[in-house]
Amino acid sequence: MLPVAPRAGRLLVLAAVFISAACGLVYELELVALASYLTGDSVTQASVVLSVMVFAMGIGSLLAKHLRCRAAAAFGAVEAALALVGGCSAMALYAGFVWGAGTTGTRVLLVAFCLAIGVLIGAEVPLLMTLIQRIRRQDAGGAVADLFAADYVGALAGGLAFPFLLLPLLGQLTGALLTGAVNAVAGGTLVLWLFRHDLSARARRRLLAANLAVLVLLATLAAGVGDFERAARHTMYGADVRVARQTDVQEVVVTGRAHPSDGGHGGSDLDLYLDGHLRPGGRDGHRYHEALVHPAMRGPHARVLILGGADGLAAREVLRHSGVDRVDVVAADRELTDLARTDPALSALNAHAYDDPRLHLAHDDAFQWLREPRTGAASRPYDVVIADLPEPRLTEAARFYSQEFFGLVARTLAPEGRLAVHAGPATRTRAFWTVEAGVRAAGLRSVPYRVRAKGRREETGAGRERTPRDWAFLLAARTPPRLGLDARPARRSLTPAMLRDGARAMAATRVPGLPPSTLVHPRYAGAAADGG
After folding, report:
1. So where does spermidine get bound (predicted)?
2. Among residues 325, 333, 388, 530, which one is catalytic?
3. I want to staple 389 with a disulfide (CB 3.0 to 4.6 A). Which of 168, 296, 308, 398 is the partner?
């Protein structure tokens, strides 16, 4: 006996299918996004999450065959468990990464959550199929078509809600907890109200208690998300976090402080982390930016284009040269450039580069900006192009090191123009020489070199991993470029002898015969894993 007419009851079951599918896809996307942020390589993380989860869904469907005799109670229990596991998955994965699991342990946790969530999602449709047939018998084909239609539309809603609503408005942790709460309410309401006569009084009490317990736990965790994130940042970045902000592009964390009188020459202990990766910036970042910028500035440099470099540190080095008339900076993250302009410590570190009238800022993706036709001053060729972009080991950045990208850059260069590229750590030799192959394939000649930091080692609090900072670069032009420095600016730690030594050391690591990376065949996923 249903409390509503059969037609209304059937619509309620389909609504439950819709909500369950939306919540399930949000859990999947949350795991993909968080795993990509924590361990990198979004293609690998997406492949692991989706393949393991689909496999587990098949297991869940098989297991649900044995629960159809108690479909209402089983569905209520499955939804409560799914709300608990899925809602807490992001917070548990993040906690495991920060407090001891490291990269390997995080991947194990990821697979475990994918298996658990997949089994529970897989059990939903067979149980709902049984429930909808109890309301009104219909042919199996029609019932399956209705259920899968609601399921697919719900997946569409969840897939759109995650990037456009949950992630920007609530963040990954709160978004997952809220999704779990919606999941629990929808499943509990369907069973405890629409199918309450299928349950014994004892089963109703147990199911109600379980759903209330899940909701209370999710609400408690949601209330503590702020404290949890602060504790996690304290563990990962230390106690001196100045700024922690999730922009539309990435997570930005600034730690330490800069000394205004230093001007970026080593006295600063300011560090900038983008999506958990330390950017060269404070204590010895001046050497990185000197090595990236100054060799390319030897020669005509009236017009300079900086791709990336939202922190303003590459622009700081460019503007130290006399004869610079115009600097165009193309950076996608508007909030980071605003921070680099307004934060006292960060603006001191970049020597207030964004206040220089010669600097012109475009908030755009570097690849897209190069593709679009331009007018005015930005349409003229550049004497120098500086590519200060994320390392190619990050899958989403691989297109910035493709043959097509370097071809677009070559199109913007003046006849005697130079391109400077940071191509990751010198220890990842295969990745570096893949970048060099892409530069050559675009019609440019290049000189490789590397520069070591002054004993500085990158430390990541979560993984306790320490990695030598040994940066690798390419200087490229249409004719073989000459590696060197001009007489100015005088105040720098980089010397011609360092460049000569770095060029010899990098040339000795050459890996011959590597094909270039392209948009349709990115090659850095395997190349980035080599250790030299």
Report:
1. 289, 311
2. 388
3. 308
